[in-house]
Amino acid sequence: MFKICIVFKISIRRDGGSPCRKRKKEESPAATGSFSGFACGEIARTRLMHRHSTADNYATALRSLLAFHGKKDISFAEVDSRLIDAYGEWLRRKGICKDTLSCYMRSLRAVYNKAVEQGLTEQKEPFGNVFTGISRTRKRSIEKADINKLRAVQVKPGSFMQLVRDVFLFCFYACGMPFVDVAFLKKSQIKGGMLVYHRRKTDQVVQIKLEPCMQEIINRYRSDGSDYVFPFLTSQDEDTAYREYKRKFSYYNKTLKTLGKLAGVDKPLSSYVARHTWATLAFMSSVDMSVIAQALGHTDVKTTRIYVEDIGNGKQNSANKKLLNEVLRKRSSVQEVQ
């Protein structure tokens, strides 16, 4: 049995503070039967693996569950379907949207299942009655014409606006590469005309052939003084770089909205739009769903379908119209010959 024994030293953070408190060195979740203590250990371990986004999700979900529970600690014995069902109802009464509720539940379930795997508690299926899926999202993609509007828009050379425009296009060109992976992209990840990266969210390896439009953007920001491809981050320390990234991410999205208006794009731009647009246009071009999933670094094709489900019927109707036109045209030709 693997036991986690760790000392926590957590300072108050801007996001409301950590749910993890300092624990005595000799204590472990196995000894105390503490679910929240084990969760704090998982948060710390996940950060050590540099999976900061996942760790943030775990911490936010745990903080929310503790707020509902009203105590500083939750034991494994208390984590059952009654507690989780009541917690879900509490979130709904607070007006938490369905997808946020699902994110909290998925995070808590992931931590709970890790504890089960390590033999710290028995599997009681406490999350069996709550929503842990992903609801239909509003369409985030833009049109082909909008991509060309962004390419053509006049921005000041050397400005942050130009960097934002170029990186948005690079994300699109690179098969919908997530902004976080672009921000952390290093020169060592580009070799022999190929770009290779591990998705920080899923750890899936994605390989992309560099096209001339991608290389042109990379060349524009070439610098001998940095290991990074693009000038978003400066620190080589992972934790410090992640804090830099979070600040730049917010500024990036804010600037994207201004850029979209400047270019005359009707839909508001965000870092996710480039990714959804590539998936949508690839799907409309009849690229196989499994290929799209591989390019996006998805571990499950179901996730990919969420990206393109809003256009599924339109593509189906277009395909049917094309098929009928071909069939009816052939029939007319046969009748004319007779």
TrEMBL record:
Domain spans labelled Tyr recombinase: 137-320
GO molecular function annotation: DNA binding
Could you tell me which InterPro entries the record lists for this protein?
A: DNA_brk_join_enz (IPR011010), Integrase-like_cat_sf (IPR013762), Integrase_catalytic (IPR002104), Integrase_recombinase_N (IPR010998), SAM-like_dom (IPR025269), Tyrosine_recombinase_XerCD (IPR050090)
Query: Do you know which Pfam families this protein is assigned to?
Result: Phage_int_SAM_5 (PF13102), Phage_integrase (PF00589)
Note the superkingdom of the native organism: Bacteria
A GO BP entry is:
DNA recombination
Which family does the entry's similarity section mention? Answer: Belongs to the 'phage' integrase family.
Any idea what this protein is called? Putative tyrosine recombinase, XerC-like
UniProt gene name: xerC_1
